[in-house]
Design a protein that fits this description.
Elements lengths: L19 E4 L7 H7 L5 E4 L5 H11 L3 E5 L8 H13 L4 E6 L1 H14 L3 E5 L10 E6 L2 E6 L7 E4 L9 H19 L6 H23 L4 H20 L4 H13 L3 H16 L4 H11 L4 H11 L15 H9 L12 H13 L6
Parallel strand pairs: 1-8, 2-3, 2-4, 4-5, 5-8
Antiparallel strand pairs: 6-7
This protein binds nicotinamide-adenine-dinucleotide.
The site of nicotinamide-adenine-dinucleotide (NAD) has 27 residues, from helix 4, strand 6 and helix 9.
Length: 361
């Protein structure tokens, strides 16, 4: 008789998301070729009003493959903006969207894809990572709804570090730490798996190496490449596995108090990590190792502080009396977190983040 197999210590589900990535300085030169590879010939280009000139440059590069530009992308994808962009796509009979910009612009392309199924080609110019995820978000009446749908995952992503040279240092730093946050929470995700953990750890390493160089020399292409590479890995991590307390808290703070996205991630991350550290020791060892620090929480705090990033929620415009409201909201809907989420614990976390205190360990 066969004896039963020993209990597996390693058990996971890994699902690869299908997307094509073209990475490198000058990769933007392939944009027309990449649109054609999607079998598309009427590409609607999307951008923010601030990035109108890069949108116009894409239209020029696409030539006959362009169906014009919609330059009204806005933070958090308000539904009225999504509706206007969908209407434009219908009117010009677009057969694909080319989104050039940060998470807000990619988010607008996803809103179009969600209802039309049009393929998206994303050209990220920040480190937010949305281009690698099937996650969409729409804001209506001040409330942000998010969901997952394979239709919104960009089919092709062109990463050209030359496009990030214009990203101001302050936004580069906070956007890069936003990418580190995706990697950190992937390491203690309920869906954590060995492939994504390798990717996430490497992402933290690349960003920890690249960001200080970007802060010192924003025009250095090697530093920009290394950082964008880390941001890609952050996006892969975010797209593949579920996030936890840190992302939920930032979502609440951003949505309820209108705090800026990347800066809020930067301030909250060391405190969310300090909260979760006792419950996720292996993940914390990997974070600390990738940061080259003794501890994950203090290493993240010191990285942000050394790069001149904000370290307190107060500096982002939050008011002290909002801490209790934020703590109430954070425990309203239960979700997975390695350490149980209690109101008292979250309140203390928020109090520390509000004042910008360095975690104790
Ligand atoms: P953003 O897209 O709002 O861009 C911020 C500003 O920077 C804009 O004015 C933009 O025009 C400008 N900008 C972008 N790149 C630039 C460059 N290279 N040079 C100069 N200016 C530049 O900011 P973000 O942090 O990239 O995205 C934040 C949004 O993305 C949030 O709404 C967030 O919720 C969403 N997001 C979604 C996902 C997802 O998976 N769905 C992931 C990450 C972020």
């Amino acid at each position: 008789m066969l004896t039963s197999a020993p209990k597996a210590v390693l058990s996971f589900i890994y699902e690869a998301l299908p997307s094509r990535v073209v990475f490198g300085a000058g990769a933007l030169d392939t944009v027309a070729e990449e649109v054609a590879k999607l079998s598309a010939s009427r590409a609607l280009v999307l951008c923010t009003p601030e990035q109108r000139s890069v949108g116009a440059d894409i239209v020029l590069r696409l030539g006959a493959l362009s169906a014009g530009v919609f330059d009204g992308a806005r933070m958090h994808v308000p539904v009225e903006v999504a509706e206007a962009a969908r209407e434009r796509a219908r009117r010009v009979q677009a057969d694909c969207c080319v989104a050039i910009g940060g998470g807000s612009t990619t988010g607008l392309a996803k809103a179009i894809a969600l209802t039309s199924g049009l393929p998206v080609l994303a050209i990220p110019t920040t480190y937010a990572g949305s281009e690698m995820t099937p996650i969409w978000g729409l804001t209506e009446g001040g409330l942000k709804k998010t969901g997952r749908d394979p239709r919104v995952l960009p089919r092709t992503v062109i990463y050209d570090p030359a496009l990030t040279l214009s990203l101001p240092v302050a936004l580069s730093v906070t956007s890069g730490i936003n990418a580190i946050a995706h990697c950190v929470e992937a390491l203690y995700s309920k869906d954590a798996n060995p492939i994504i953990s390798l990717i996430a750890e490497e992402g933290i390493r690349a960003l920890t190496d690249g960001l200080p160089k970007v802060a010192k020399q924003p025009q250095n292409m090697d530093a920009r490449s290394r950082t964008l590479y880390g941001a890609w890995l952050g996006g892969v991590s975010l797209g593949a596995v579920g996030m936890a307390l840190h992302h939920k808290l930032c979502h609440t703070l951003g949505g309820t108090f209108n705090l800026p996205h990347a800066e809020t991630h930067t301030v909250v991350l060391p405190h969310a990590v300090a909260y979760n550290a006792p419950a996720a020791p292996e993940a914390m060892d990997r974070v600390a190792r990738a940061l080259g620090a003794d501890s994950a929480a203090t290493g993240l705090y010191d990285l942000a502080a050394s790069l001149g990033a904000p370290v307190s929620l107060e500096a982002l415009g939050m008011r002290g009396e909002q801490i209790d409201q934020a703590a109430d909201l954070a425990v309203q809907n239960p979700y997975y977190n390695p350490r149980p989420v209690t109101r008292e614990g979250v309140r203390e976390l928020l109090e520390n983040a509000f004042h910008g205190r360095r975690p104790e360990r």
